[in-house]
Specification:
It contains 7 helices and 10 strands. The chain has helices at about 5-20, 40-45, 60-70, 120-125, 150-160, 250-255, 290-300, and strands at about 30-35, 55-60, 95, 135-145, 165-170, 185-190, 215, 220, 260, 285. Helix 4 (about 120-125) packs parallel to helix 5 (about 150-160). The chain is globular.
């Protein structure tokens, strides 16, 4: 999954702000991509115009790493950040971070620092004071819920004690004309004395917009989300393309009323989770390509004609 390309792209532009000015000031940006996944944060950095850059990526998921290599032609360091020597993460201008969300997600147990999957982030937080050459910039992405976690509090404490300024955002793709609700937390940080492009936002506890963005009028979204049909294959009316993705009739008859059903002409869809295709409710929307009236009537009757 490529995480939030549009909002990350806007945030990357906002993060660099006044610090770089012209890109001629720095020949090659040295980037550390931690918890790299499929490379969504890397893609956003490229789309934001900050090339050339040299990137070093880390992730413990071999499958995600194989997709990353397919996407970008580069190997990912398949290492546990709990034990990776600090010298391997030293001397980078920018850290991109998307740590595991399970310790903080509202649908989980919210064990926070007690969750083993939070250990690597905690180790990175503790490393700030030990790094000889800490990053000048940091962008962290996570789920709604991270902003009230002890992990977040410790990160903020570490940033402040090591001379960073920071801003926090909560943004969703539907603010950027993407018909999907996926509220996410973003933290931007940069070393003092560098300022953000909009330092007046430093005092805001949480920012729900991007200033001077083409997608916002003041603090309000400027546009409604686009229709789902704009994101489908060009010949999406060809049913043969969707044959292998069809939901079995037996499941429709039993659980069809629990699905969040959207159509090509819909301008919304629900957040997709890891349990999509395994659970029927609360894991993401399903796309109905046929006649909506007949489909809903048949679901209510408990059978599909």
């Amino acid at each position: 999954r490529v995480r939030g390309r549009l909002d990350n792209c806007q945030l990357n532009k906002l993060m660099i702000g006044r610090s770089f000015g012209s890109m001629t000031q720095i020949q090659t940006l040295k980037v550390l991509e931690l918890y790299s996944g499929l490379g969504g944060l890397r893609l956003s950095l490229s789309k934001a115009g900050f090339e050339p850059f040299h990137i070093k990526a880390f992730d413990v998921n071999p499958l995600a790493n194989s997709v990353y290599k397919h996407n970008f032609g580069e190997e990912v360091n398949c290492k546990d950040l709990c034990t990776t020597p600090l010298r391997e993460i030293e001397d980078h201008d920018l850290w991109l971070m998307s740590p595991p969300c399970q310790p903080y997600t509202r649908q989980g147990k919210q064990k926070d620092l007690e969750d083993p999957r939070a250990r690597s982030l905690l180790r990175l937080i503790q490393s700030f004071s030990s790094l000889k050459n800490p990053p000048n910039y940091l962008l962290l992405e996570n789920v709604k819920g991270f902003e009230v976690s002890e992990s977040r509090n410790r990160l903020i404490d570490a940033l402040l004690s090591n001379g960073y300024r920071y801003q926090e955002f909560e943004l969703s793709p539907n603010q950027f004309r993407i018909p999907n609700s996926r509220l996410r937390y973003f933290l931007l940080a940069k070393k003092s004395p560098m300022e953000f492009l909009y330092p007046e936002l430093n005092s805001r506890s949480m920012i729900g917009f991007i200033p001077d963005s083409e997608f916002f009028s003041g603090e309000s979204p400027k546009y409604s989300p686009a229709l789902i049909e704009h994101f489908l294959e060009p010949d999406f009316t060809d049913e043969s393309l969707f044959e292998k993705f069809k939901i079995p009739t037996k499941i429709l008859a039993k659980s069809g009323r629990l699905f969040d059903i959207v159509f090509p002409y819909s301008d919304r869809s629900c957040c997709f989770t890891k349990s999509y295709c395994r659970y029927t409710e609360g894991t993401g929307s399903v796309l109905q390509m046929g006649d909506s009236v007949f489909f809903l009537c048949n679901c209510l009757m408990g059978s599909i004609i």
